[in-house]
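Box 4.2: Ligand-aware structure prediction
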Amino acid sequence: MDMKGRKILITGAAGFIGSHLADRLAGENDLVLVDDFSIGSMDNLAQLENRSGVQIVKADVTDRERMMDLCQGVEALFHLAISCLRTSLNQPVLSHDINAGGTLSVCMAAFDRGVRRFIYVSSSEIYGTALAAPMSEDHPCHPTTVYGASKLAGELYALAYHRTYGMPVSVVRPFNTYGPREPYAGSRAEVIPRFILQLAAGEQPVIYGDGLQTRDFTFVEETVEGIVRAAECDALVGDVVNVAYGQEVSILQIAEILAELMGHSDRGVKRAEPRPGDVRRHFADIGRARALFGFAPQIGIRTGIGRTLEWFESSGIASRAEPRASGLPNW
Ligand SMILES: NC(=O)c1ccc[n+]([C@@H]2O[C@H](COP(=O)([O-])OP(=O)(O)OC[C@H]3O[C@@H](n4cnc5c(N)ncnc54)[C@H](O)[C@@H]3O)[C@@H](O)[C@H]2O)c1
């Protein structure tokens, strides 16, 4: 099913990945961009605000009646709205309500309105730490956090709607995604933006644990491309697919690359207590995405980090960084 000339609804559209997905689909489609703006920001959607065919709606995905109204006439729905991993460490019920309950509510609305393609954007966190690597879609699902468990519940609800009612559901499991607009403040601040701000403020990057934990970092434009191609792939309906770059990089390596790019290689790093439930190892097997829809990411970690840094510098966010308690745990 081509994602062209469609009416498409995106939940979590004012967030990091959702706003890039909206950019990618705008122009060729009519978009209903849904977000409760609890975390997401209008800044992320400013470029789309006055574009014809784009409707920006403040709504809560757990509000089933509202979602029912919004799904009227929608042909494809990308469900991304979440409460994030770090929030789940202190507010597990919120995580459950939004990530699992919200997904069920969106499934019910989409099914009721006859949505023709439902794309559940899941997460590599559903796997837990790698028992074998690279991790294919058949890797056991042993999430370590309530966030991971709630994302897995969302997957299972969406797939249940496929198995029981025949709703055309596809599940995409992105691995860690980074790039412009990545959250840098409060509990949503991710590792790459935090390191950028710490280095820009004259501090050492703060690493929780030994820094040897790994992730498969994927540049946001490539994650979005994978999500769109997965949505277009008829053979994926009823199934799941990994979307990642396909390379294992440690948190320590990230700190080193950034320090070098910012001219602070001699600064070293500061170590702190590990984050509870932190996954030790993530490294994706992307063979299924390659075989099904020719997914072939090109943006390696140094290039991607360089582009991310450029955005944090040109947006003025890096130069406003202040030496303060930026290394304190944000969960
Ligand atoms: N960022 C990553 O590295 C990554 C990796 C794997 C998977 N994912 C998945 O991608 C999706 C998007 O992640 P992101 O990093 O862009 O997150 P994000 O926090 O930037 O975006 C989530 C958006 O959901 C909105 N939201 C929260 N609760 C809501 C509610 N009740 N109703 C409506 N909107 C609500 C927030 O305001 C926010 O704009 C999520 O499903 C996440 O699990 C992200």
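In the box above, the bound molecule is nicotinamide-adenine-dinucleotide. Residues 11-12, 14-18, 35-40, 60-62, 80-84, 98, 102, 121, 123-124, 151, 174, 176-177, 183, 188 surround nicotinamide-adenine-dinucleotide (CB under 6 Å).
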